[in-house]
Amino acid sequence: MTLSKQIKSKNRVQEYGEVFTNEREVKAMCDLVKEETERIDSRFLEPACGDGNFLVEILNRKLDVVKKKYKKSPLDYEKNAVLAISSIYGVDILIDNVLACRKRLFNIWDKAYKSVCKNDCNDQTRDAVKFILEKNIVCGNALTLCCVDENGKDTDKPIVFSEWAFITGSMLQRSDYTFAELLAKDEYDTKTQTSFLDNNADSEGVFLKKYVSHYRRVQENG
Ligand SMILES: C[S@@+](CC[C@H](N)C(=O)[O-])C[C@H]1O[C@@H](n2cnc3c(N)ncnc32)[C@H](O)[C@@H]1O
User: Fold this and answer.
1) Residue 42 Cβ < 6 Å to ligand 1
2) Which residues contact 18 (CB under 8 A, 6 or more apart)?
3) How far, in Å, CA of 59 to CA of 65, rounded?
4) Is the CB of 48 under 6 A from ligand 1?
5) What does pTM read for this prediction?
């Protein structure tokens, strides 16, 4: 990547520290946690995600694993590809970055979906994935933990993240937590040597709301 691709404007560098990481560095850094990047359901959160350079690499790695394991069964592929994307989270203060990040992740997901599931692809699952990305890639201030307006200014709305977990068969549970609550819980878990990013953590913290639906219909619980 040339320097011109790493920087959009001098003003954005000065005001938001916006310098994009090049692919070689992204790959090298992801290799430091290689096993986690190749676990379909391991959760990643990038609190200054830009247009998603790290999240794209993580999604590609997860989808490669899903393809290797499930390419012979479109239904299993679809469900596990949804699991892969539902475990990827990002925050950025600039709305154009957030929109670009969601779009990049969706396009990668959809290209892989088409290449494996071919005629078994359906638009309901695509809409579910778009909805998950709207929830997971948030326009907010990772320092104040508030959502921001179109000018990057804090609103009084807290950042909320949805935790997605398959419970039985195709039923996907969404539990909403404020970012502040997740960080408080993480601090608690560090002291007690568990982790909120760990799917096996026993304490679930204070969630705002839970929803359960078929994974193709998560968008019905707006
Ligand atoms: C150094 S860039 C990194 C972008 C991306 N992670 C990458 O490596 O290509 C920092 C990003 O953080 C965003 N940013 C700056 N302040 C922020 C804040 N308080 N909360 C969330 N994002 C912020 C900027 O808009 C920018 O996209």
Assistant:
1) no
2) 7, 8, 12, 50, 94, 97
3) 10
4) yes
5) 0.93
